[in-house]
Amino acid sequence: MQRRNFLKGMALGVTAAPMLSSAKILSNSKKVTTATHWGPLEATIEDGKLTEVEPLSFDSNPPLMNKAVRSRTYDETRVLYPYVREGFLKDRHKSDTTMRGKDKFVRVSWEKVNQIIYEEIARCQRDFGPESIYAGSYGWFGIGNLNNPQTLLKRMLNLTGGFVDSKGTYSTGAISVVTPIVMGTNHYFRHTSLDNIAKHTQTLVLIGCDLVRTTQINWDVPAHKSYDGFVKIKNSVKEGKLKVISINPLRTDSDKFFDAKNIKIIPNTDVALMVAMCYHLYETGLYDKNFIERYTVGFDKFKDYFTGKSDGVKKDPAWASKITGISEKEIKELTQTMAKTTTMIMPGWSLQRQDHGEMGNWAVFTLTAMLGQIGKNGGGCGASYHGDGNVGSTERVGVSIPGITVGKPMTYNAGTGNDTSSFEQSFSNKAIPVAKISDMLLNPGKSIDYNGTKVEFADIKLIYWAGGNPMHHHQDRNKMIKAWQKPEVIINQDPYWTASSRMADIVLPACTEIERDDISVVGSESKTGLIALKKGIEPVGESKADYDIFTDIADKFGRKDLFTEGRDAKGWAKYFYEQAMEQAVAKGIELPKFEAFWEKGYYEFTKMEQGGDDYVAFKEFVEDPIENQLGTPSGRIEIFSKKVASYGYDDCEGYAKFYEPAEWLGNATKDFPYHLISPHPRHRLHSQLNNTILRKVYEVNEREPILINPENAKEKGIVDGDLVLVSSKRGKILCGAVVTDDVRKDVVCVAEGAWYDPQDPGEIGSMCVHGDVNVLTIDKGTSKLAQGNISHTALVNIEKFTGTAPKIKVFSKPKM
Ligand SMILES: Nc1nc2c(c(=O)[nH]1)N[C@H]1C(S)=C(S)[C@@H](COP(=O)(O)OP(=O)(O)OC[C@H]3O[C@@H](n4cnc5c(=O)[nH]c(N)nc54)[C@H](O)[C@@H]3O)O[C@H]1N2
Ligand SMILES: Nc1nc2c(c(=O)[nH]1)N[C@H]1C(S)=C(S)[C@@H](COP(=O)(O)OP(=O)(O)OC[C@H]3O[C@@H](n4cnc5c(=O)[nH]c(N)nc54)[C@H](O)[C@@H]3O)O[C@H]1N2
Ligand SMILES: [Mo]
């Protein structure tokens, strides 16, 4: 397998990876190492300009996204200077907030903008206290253990009085709450190695999981080592030893790669499928009774549900067939195959990014327990194989590097703002589940349920967002725009004129990785190495590194020294590296001195962990469940959780149960007859890189593509390339049609992350002409337990758009 032929059409155009030593050096050019969420890179700089990037040699599958790095660096959408919205500059916190998105922006100096920010934070702390400032800022900012804008934001605000935080993520809102409850660990528990799967698994079941697509990226820098494992799995498929089955309304990149059988389930009904599979295992005696008795608690409670004892409805394959659209015969066959062969289940996180998302993973763990293969070679399940480009790869003996911290909270000293206050806990206890942002802004004082507690919404006057794009990631854009009109001050810090920048009062230009010094690990699970992110070019325009931006704001409060602890960016990189050196000694690794590491640009760990390629999750627990209890209250797998049941939630009763989703094909109407899913994009990281040349690779008629089944296209008179008006109860967008039977009939698919481009910016209800899917989605929590977002739950209509195609404006600068 040629590694760069990995995915046809996916890695196309990426040239061979050079060894640094063989790099050709021109007189006016230099090569530096840098990194992104999609790989470790070597950048060529000529006359102070970034001209090219190439993947480093230890990247197992460099993605096409590398091709966008230069394009994004110099794109017209870069924010070059600090800007303030005209109305805000004039009237400050008394400005007309409905003008957000409509007003002109005025360029100001850094000195002036820092003074405004200082005055506004100080005013809010003085008049309303820390609970008036929201810094729960979420998002996938760039790489670097220092330039983590969210940690730096909190560090700065901690030194100046505190703030309201968020908890949880958009990625794992429900699974991060459920896995500890059921399995007593977090969802990133070490997974059975992909090598072990390739050797022993006979049936690999992907449920809402497109790992070949999603493992292109990593929260740190991916070495894409899981792709080595995928190749081995594919070889086992070719040899006829392993079969891949993919339960997904969409035939995915992974399905094509593994030549999987794609079972096109009705969206949001996987729990019904799995419950019926449990029923069938029970009815046929195929379930592992011994495993259930020895390693789990609460089976009887679940049994009463699936047998119908508790509610009179038998959850048998006939019942599930009507809900899932999968035939009774197929459900039975699938169940029997899984029981009779060595089966590994890989759920994606899409299962929990939907209404009652807690139930998806609860059902996976329950079904897996009944199959009884947990802890055995090639069997069981993993909750996060698709989560980043290294999960399940064989680990090397390596170390990670610490990063900047939020520091110690200090009370703001009203009046002076000087460093005279005592250290004291001033953190707000009003942190929200992250996807409750609009609800919080719209309903101050209201209280909601969350995982057995109550969360009271703060009255937010100032939002500071750094390193995220809420105007892409959050659901129900129109509700959000209304919510965005509530605070007095909104600050957004980003390299680009994203919708979040356009909807702010103050816009601060951050720079990207190649414009600053930093350090990172490569391959958080594979432990492939360490990389120096070297400043190759000067920050574009007057942009600055996040670290420098927050240092200057802390300075305004007289707290610069506390913020920096006397270090500059490279000083921090050295400080972090030297701590890694200490850890390394304990593991018998001799890391080079910092200067030598920095000079070379990376360090690769080469020693493989012994037995790592045969790692099996939960093996110790299965071998000795008394000695190696799980972290649950019972020490076992909790098929039923007494603790969750004790919360008395009507939408989450403490075991895997199918609840009817807010919107699904089972309650579709004539007005909104199709189910919309919004998976992660192939050639972007969310909204990142939408403003680059890569747009040409996937856009249709300058819009985000919508996948439509040929039968639906025919009934609507839509053909490939048409402009399509997509509407839901919440709003309207335009997309470009791709007619394909990859997608199930009555299901349409629009990837998340197309830049929001409303016809009338700032106007509630305005049509997005470019295809931001979150104009259509529902802003509701999964349940009272986790309150995760439900992006994959929405009904829509589609129509051929016949008017004049509106111009795309979002890739030019806003009014100035
Ligand atoms: N419908 C739907 N919606 C979804 C999802 C879905 O599946 N469907 N998925 C959800 C999920 S899982 C997630 S994680 C979220 C992702 O949501 P986000 O993480 O908010 O999305 P990104 O587009 O990655 O936004 C990151 C922003 O950081 C900026 N940035 C990059 N580098 C830097 C830097 O060094 N400094 C600063 N200050 N800024 C920087 C980028 O320009 C970009 O605007 O979306 C969620 N939304
Ligand atoms: N290229 C790329 N990779 C990424 C990201 C990116 O933006 N771009 N983002 C990263 C991040 S932050 C995250 S959180 C992960 C997300 O990883 P996931 O949450 O696993 O990804 P999704 O794309 O939301 O969904 C995966 C699959 O679920 C299917 N699906 C949707 N609804 C249903 C359903 O009801 N039932 C079933 N069975 N299937 C369903 C979709 O068709 C899709 O193929 O990906 C990461 N990887
Ligand atoms: Mo995510």
Number of strands: 29
Give the biggest sheet: 6 strands, mixed
Q: Which whole number gives the mean pLDDT?
A: 94
How many separate helices? 27
User: Quick one: CATH class of the largest domain?
Assistant: Alpha Beta
Q: What spatial order of strands do you see in the largest sheet? A: 5-4-19-18-17-6
How does the helix and strand content classify structurally? alpha/beta
Tell me roughly what share of residues is in helical segments.
25-40%
- The CATH architecture of the largest domain comes to 3-Layer(aba) Sandwich
Q: What small ligands are held by the chains?
A: ligand MGD, molybdenum atom
Contiguous low-pLDDT stretches (5 residues minimum) are 1-24, 414-426
The CATH topology of the largest domain is given as: Dimethylsulfoxide Reductase, domain 2
Shape descriptor: globular
Distance between the termini: 52 Å
CATH superfamily of the largest domain: Dimethylsulfoxide Reductase, domain 2
Chain oligomer state = single chain
Describe the model.
This protein has 816 residues and is α/β, with parallel strands linked by helices. It folds into four domains: 2-73, N-terminal domain of TfIIb; 83-168 and 408-512 and 540-558, Rossmann fold, CATH 3.40.50.740; 189-393 and 614-646, Dimethylsulfoxide Reductase, domain 2; 665-800, Barwin-like endoglucanases. Helix content is 28%, strand content 16%. Helix 15 (358-371) links the parallel strand 12 (343-347) and strand 13. The protein binds ligand MGD (2 copies) and molybdenum atom. Molybdenum atom (MO) is lined by residues 170-171.
